[in-house]
Amino acid sequence: MKAINLPEPEKPIPNLSVSNNQGLLQWISSVDHKQIGIMYLWLSVLFLVAAGCEILLVRIQLAVPNNHFLNPEVYNQLFTMHGTTMIFFVAMPAIFGFNTYLVPLMIGANDMAYPRLNAFSFWMTFFGGLLLYFSFLAGGAPDAGWFNYAPLNQYNYSSSPGVDYYCSGLLIAGIGTVTASANFVVTILKYRVNSMSLKQMPLFVWMILINSFLILAAFPSLNAALVMLLFDRQLHAHFFSVQGGGSAILWQHLFWLFGHPEVYIVILPAFGIFSEVFPVYSRKPIFGYTFIIASGMAIALLAFGVWIHHMFATGLGNTVNSFFAASSMLIGIPTGVKIFNWLATMHGGAIRFKVSMMFAIAFLIEFTIGGLTGISFTLVPIDWQLTDTYYVVAHLHFVFIGGTLFGLFSGLFYWFPKMSGRMLDEKLSKWFFWLFVLGFNTTFLVQHALGAMGMARRVYTYPDLPGWGILNLISTIGGFMMAIATGLLVFIIITALKTGEKATRDPWDANTLEWTTSSPPGLKNFDFVIPVKSTRPFRDLKRPDDADWKKTDNNG
Amino acid sequence: MIVTLYLSAINKAQSIFDSASPQAEKINRLSYGFLTVAAGVLLLVVVLTVYITIKFRSKENASEPRQITGNRKLEILMVSFPMVLVVIFFFWSLNTMNAINPDRAGQKSDIIITGHQWWWEAVYPGSKVITANEIHLPTGRKLLLQLNSADVIHDWWVPSFGAKMDMIPGMDNFLWVTIDKPGIYEGTCSEFCGEQHAWMRIMVVAQNPADYNKWLLAHTIKTTIPNDSLANKGEVIFMNSSCSSCHSIQGTVAAGMEGPNLTHFASRQTMLSGMMDNNPQNVEKWLTNPQKIKPGAHMPRFIFSKDSVRAITAYLTQLK
Known about the structure:
The structure holds two protein chains of two kinds.
Chain A: H1 24-28, H2 33-62, H3 72-106, H4 115-134, H5 162-190, H6 203-235, H7 248-282, H8 289-302, H9 318-346, H10 355-378, H11 380-386, H12 390-420, H13 426-452, H14 468-499, H15 537-542
Helix pairs in contact in A: 2-3, 2-4, 2-14, 3-4, 3-5, 3-12, 4-5, 5-6, 6-7, 6-8, 7-12, 8-9, 9-10, 10-12, 10-13, 12-13, 13-14
Chain B: H1 2-10, H2 22-55, H3 72-100, E1 111-116, E2 119-123, E3 130-132, E4 134-138, E5 142-149, E6 154-156, E7 165-167, E8 173-178, E9 183-188, E10 201-207, H4 209-220, H5 229-240, H6 243-246, E11 270-271, E12 276-277, H7 280-288, H8 290-293, H9 306-316
Parallel strand pairs in B: 1-5, 4-10
Antiparallel strand pairs in B: 1-2, 2-3, 5-8, 6-7, 9-10, 11-12
Helix pairs in contact in B: 2-3, 5-9, 7-9
């Protein structure tokens, strides 16, 4: 089997007195997909710490009723930055980090299709994030919420430059996101090892392929809205200002036409990770390979027809609302049924309780909770009661943390040995798992009740109504438990990098191509790639008598 | 009477399940139906997860388990079962929507409520009454509320009444509500509307039709002129300094429309949209430095002398 060779300098260029090891410069100037992937992941950790600190301040403010720890101006900046950062500069870079690192390895390629574009994408994200955070020094961070509704985002209601930085930062990062997605599409479609057909691609790669098309179709709407808003604020245009003949509701349409697909953009890669993790730790093939791909595609298509469910309370009328209620219920089916695919994958298997698998199992339950509360919003009258309350805050964190973040953690514990060549301390990692899961549930379960009890979201303080104080205090305590757990995780990672046990090439007895190369892979990923004749080429190699491609009863 | 109602209201939280209108009751029935099915689904997932992870945990030196890649029949079942649930709940939800939000069919609104940063204005069509923040509504009658905004998007939400509805500048939104029985109902602005979104709380005083009409009549009548010298001095300051350019008091020259209408200010239980009790001490604090009490509020700090503050307070607290 012939590997795809990407011309790479294997010997130092003669007569050039530059050392091979350039330290930081080597990272900054890198076009290697593995280094860029790792930089994406560290960028994500950096912003996770920032957004985490922001929300801890917010939770301190909310710990008791009528608190004066933060003034409303600062509070509004902090929760806006928390949401914006977590979506655009934590979730997205973390996902792109895994994608960039793993996609070439999993399809038997030596790099991305466009290595320099890959570096460009990363640096756009990096500088977009820095620009957003520069607003703190430039007169005030954005303060109109992460979805930044008009006309509150207009100059006369938010006169600090924060919203301008929001527009510019997200635009720049958005360019990086779009170029990265184009890069993934080309890499996956054109750079697979010759013998790998689309139907033999790992599910993670499938999800990234679908996801990249989602990004390419969804981000233009956001980018257009951001430019229009910048025109409004800087050039006195009137797209969203009602006094000038604009429309306040237009912003919501443009934003959610991006915003709802974005929800799936951050969950599909997690679904891809789980579809790798469940089979490996259950020692069984995935249950319903084709079904998972088809449901991923169904999600991607339906994702563009559900955005009004963020706007059921804007008074668009029963006809419009019922159409989008139906489409939103429908998208719940391919999303929810996957839970049963993964359960069926475990059924009859030999389950190994590694931390990666524990996050995957916890995800099944947490994501079901978040999914069910999500379905409750498709019942329009229930949405009319509960939208814009703490119930929504609870719901979205159950899907973002219980879904996306648990997926990223599961992926981290699964692929860390491959990326670093070191094993993570399994015992400490289990402590981290339990502390984080406990903290997460402590923080957000009670918020469902707070919403039903009438607490609106985004309030900087609240009156001392019966039950509100104690539930908020519980939530704050849970938030700090998650913070401590995250600190522990950073400690575990750093100790592993310094003194961790060396990882073998294939520590989990896995199935896919990335495990056939060394841990960590060399600058050139593969010298040769093993033949790919099924979705589990490495297993075929390890168990030639029971190879998947020899079987005909392929139900998947 | 209002005081006792107020006390009874603040003694218990008003959640979405404490319905006080047929509209909220219909949503409740749907919510209970949904909760039952959702609990069933969650239970199924939890039981399966726990059962499978315990039953199929890896044993020492076990050989590789059977390699099953799928099962068409099971997959079809996994899709069709939720499909049935979706159809049932879609029509249930649709019926509820149509019942609580029927076509207006040209009916005139009974009350016009306008959201401002950060207070509520209520206009009663057919009378000259305009109030702020404490909104009186009659019970037993199907009311059509018209919801508008003067600046950014706000949202009207009283959990006991059922649905919430956005107030969007440039749009007229409507909401039906039939209040079952008299009482004080609390709610809050539910769309983030800027710095003081937290203190944009709603208080609805629901009265039986007789009491309501009495209240409406009392508010149609001009405010009684205060009868002590301090209050009179306060009135003069109010009318001659900037106060009157933003606030209205019926029967006087004060006709500003920017701030809350203060015609019967002293009859209200709370001030600043539920932020604090309405008493002379708080009014004095507010007049001394509004930006310290409610930062960002659109009332600037006027440098009144202590005597002036006391005089204006005396005047305002007599506007029963």
